[in-house]
Design brief:
The structure is a single chain. The chain has about 475 residues and is α/β, with parallel strands linked by helices. It has 2 domains: about 170 residues, Aspartate Aminotransferase, domain 1 (Alpha-Beta Complex), CATH 3.90.1150; about 280 residues, Type I PLP-dependent aspartate aminotransferase-like (Major domain) (Aspartate Aminotransferase, domain 2, 3-Layer(aba) Sandwich), CATH 3.40.640. It contains 15 helices and 15 strands. Strands 4-10-9-8-7-5-6 form a 7-stranded mixed beta sheet, with helices on both faces. The chain has a 4-stranded mixed beta sheet with strand order 1-2-3-13.
Length: about 475
């Protein structure tokens, strides 16, 4: 691709961004000094910065560029819809064609009886909507005392008020913010790599299930409304729970009549090789699925809260004169829904999930070769959702000091070599577009190895011991 602009123009954009755009998850001290890497163009699995440098996008935008950049079909579908009708009021009894078609399509591909959808603007608002829906449902069931919600430590559910309160990721719970702490509770992360020393995976799993049931009994078996769980925990470190864990958690929910919410904002739409992973990958039928990201492959902001016929029949029962006063100006936005419909069509036509099930294991296998490096404690994940945990000591799993900033240093070294990966503390996360090829997987791993070796040499020169 041609260079996007002169150096003078690039500096102007960099300054405008630094001086006026407050980014999600801004670290003010470093941002004021360094500003942003300005991206200008994209195509396939690659992006170009404003100076024309090319990068392989190893994080797929932000878990979201599932069908890749530059899909003209989606762009044309959006443009065609914008020409016909760019916006439609979604409130009460007005709809639009793409919204109705998308809701029906989601009912077709969602598991079990999940056949009703409320649209929002992203994953956070999809989870907030689920939260409100659940409270409404229990009132309609004459069980208003069910006000408690259980999520997990190191989970991520979003950054709106409720979603941020559901989030259990330690690094995201900053003291300057306030959270819902009286009715939202967190139990242990199901991270087998960090299980107690000497404990088997089986015993670890049993302890997690027992902890969940104990928490329910502590709160009151008739007072817990729902359990929120990512099938694989994303931003908290791509935590893949032990085999059977999710099924057992679902069984506990069923035992006490608790709703099971699968937060599939990341894992849906092919990331794990299926439309939705809770049922198809892990064998759990949720009562509610929240999704976003891959729903439109990032071409438009759109979230969806998909819920069961049983829930809908309860809240919509005739004779109660009920209003469901929840929703958004942009719920079911026609351009966003048109993008989602075309995105889903592409996934079906290209059999993209079969590709993921082929290339995903290969990506994991190639990344696992990095475990010979002294800083790589674990390579974990599934298909095209992967995390590398960087450590100081392989035997004790001791972490490097926070000030070493190992994840960021590796990400910076990879960026210099034309690869974008995501640093999260001592972790490096990857979630490339689902269209990535085996050759491009090789490229990712080769650049990562070179980048990690460079950082390891720097650490040694600084006197930091690696065991």
């Amino acid at each position: 691709m041609e260079q996007s602009g002169s150096n003078e123009f690039a500096q102007e954009i960099w300054r405008k961004d630094r001086d006026h755009f407050v980014h999600p998850w801004t670290h003010f001290d470093s941002f004021k000094k360094e500003g942003s890497l300005v991206m200008a163009e994209a195509g396939g699995v690659h992006i170009w910065d404003i100076d024309g440098k090319k990068y392989l996008d190893g994080i797929g935008g932000l878990w979201c560029m599932n069908v890749g950049y530059g899909r003209e079909e989606i762009v044309e579908a959006m443009a065609d819809q914008a020409r016909k009708m760019v916006y439609a009021n979604p409130f009460v009894d007005v709809t639009n064609i793409p919204a109705a078609e998308l809701a029906a399509k989601l009912a077709e591909i969602a598991p079990g009886s999940l056949n009703h959808t409320m649209f929002s603007c992203g994953g956070s608002t999809a989870n907030d909507t689920a939260f409100r829906l659940i409270g409404y449902y229990w009132h309609c069931r004459n069980q208003p005392q069910r006000v408690h919600y259980i999520a997990r430590k190191e989970s991520y559910h979003g950054s709106t008020y409720v979603a941020q309160s559901l989030t259990g990721k330690t690094a995201d719970r900053q003291p300057e913010f306030t959270y819902i702490n009286d009715t939202i509770h967190h139990i242990s992360s199901p991270n087998p790599y960090r299980r107690p020393d000497g404990m088997s995976v089986e015993d670890f799993t049993d302890s997690l299930i027992q902890e969940f049931e104990d928490k329910i009994k502590e709160l009151g078996t008739d007072k817990v409304a729902a359990f929120f769980a990512e099938p694989i925990m994303g931003a908290g470190g791509v935590i893949v729970a032990p085999e059977g864990y999710l099924q057992c958690m679902h069984e506990v929910c069923t035992k006490y009549g608790i709703l099971f919410v699968a937060d599939e904002v990341v894992t849906a739409f092919g990331r794990l090789g299926a439309w939705f992973s809770a049922k198809d990958v892990f064998g759990v039928q949720p009562d509610i699925i929240t999704c976003a990201k891959g729903l439109t492959s990032g071409y438009q902001p759109l979230g969806a809260t998909i819920f069961s016929k049983e829930i809908y029949d309860t809240i919509s029962e005739e004779g109660h004169d009920r209003w469901f006063t929840n929703g958004f100006t942009y719920s079911g936005h026609p351009v966003a829904c048109a993008a989602a419909l075309k995105n889903i069509e592409i996934m079906e036509r290209e059999d993209l999930f079969a590709h993921v099930r082929d290339v995903g294991p290969y990506f994991m296998e190639r990344l696992s070769t990095l475990k010979d490096l002294p800083t790589v404690g674990e390579v974990r994940g599934m298909h095209l959702m992967v995390c590398i945990e960087n450590i100081a000591n392989k035997e004790t799993k001791e972490l490097l000091p926070d000030e070493v900033n190992i994840g960021k240093r590796i990400a910076n070294a990879a960026e210099e070599r034309g690869l974008i990966i995501r640093p999260v503390g001592h972790l490096n996360i990857m979630s490339p577009p689902l269209t990535i090829t085996r050759a491009q997987c090789d490229e990712v791993v080769d650049i990562l190895r070179e980048s990690m070796l460079s950082v390891i040499e720097d650490l040694k020169s600084e006197g930091i011991e690696l065991i």
